């Protein structure tokens, strides 16, 4: 008799098909509740300690479009100064200044200033621009962008690359 009971015991779990059927609905809901609880605690702690990588989208912060480039005396009369990190040229003629974008208006390569020819040239597809930024050869559809330049109260030149100005605009110092 005793051996018959043992047989039934041993076969019960086998009949039900393994571990998934041995967890009752109550146990499952309890586990789910604890899971949610620990997830909420984890989210709270990550906020507390500043870890945001998983819960927030990754955002690229760009530098301000407005920056100082120096004092007027730093730019010799008749010079074109390339500020590569800022992607601009500072063009000085007598007492006037211009900030011109280095970005070619064809497909966006960085143009370079040729001292010998006194023009801007694009190394990608050969567009050429006069010293005032106006295109005259190659596929570029329009002049280089001219950017706002001001002299601040401390006598420093500042450029705002988010503000485009007409070609003829000059800062007279
Ligand atoms: S990107 Fe400058 S000519 Fe094409």
Gist of the model:
Its cofactor is [2Fe-2S] cluster. This protein is α+β, with helices and mostly antiparallel strands and 173 residues long.
Name the average pLDDT. 85
Name the CATH homologous superfamily of the largest domain.
Rieske [2Fe-2S] iron-sulphur domain
Total tally of structural domains: 2
String of helices and strands: HHEEEEEEEEEEE
By secondary-structure content and strand pairing, the structural class works out as alpha+beta
In words, what does this structure look like?
The chain has helices at 2-16, 25-48; strands at residues 66-70, 80-83, 88-93, 96-101, 112-114, 119-121, 128-129, 135-137, 146-151, 157-165, 171-172. Residues 1-14 have low confidence and may be disordered. The termini are far apart. It is 23% helix and 28% strand. It is built from 2 helices and 11 strands. The longest helix is centred in the first third of the chain and has 24 residues, at 25-48. The protein is an alpha+beta fold. It folds into 2 domains: 18-61; 66-172, 3-layer Sandwich (Rieske Iron-sulfur Protein). FE2/S2 (inorganic) cluster binds at residues 104, 106-109, 122, 124-127, 138-140. The site of FE2/S2 (inorganic) cluster (FES) has 13 residues, from loops. It comes from Kuenenia stuttgartiensis. This is Similar to the Rieske Protein II of bc1 complex.
